[in-house]
Amino acid sequence: xxxxxxxxxxxxxxxxxxxxxxxxxxxxxxxxxxxxxxxxxxxxxxxxxxxxxxxxxxxxxxxxxx
Length: 66
What we know:
2 strands; 42% helix; flat; alpha+beta
């Protein structure tokens, strides 16, 4: 299983700059989330969590059927 990494960055004139100079490997899934304010960001994170939870339930239901 892959080890999850997280980082913080900002968008400047030349694009995205990661504060910790992270290097992601080929095939890594990288998610950058942008928001105007913290409430918008928290709302988007909650939607992502709900989708993950729903996907886990579907996987569990499929395993039960098999």
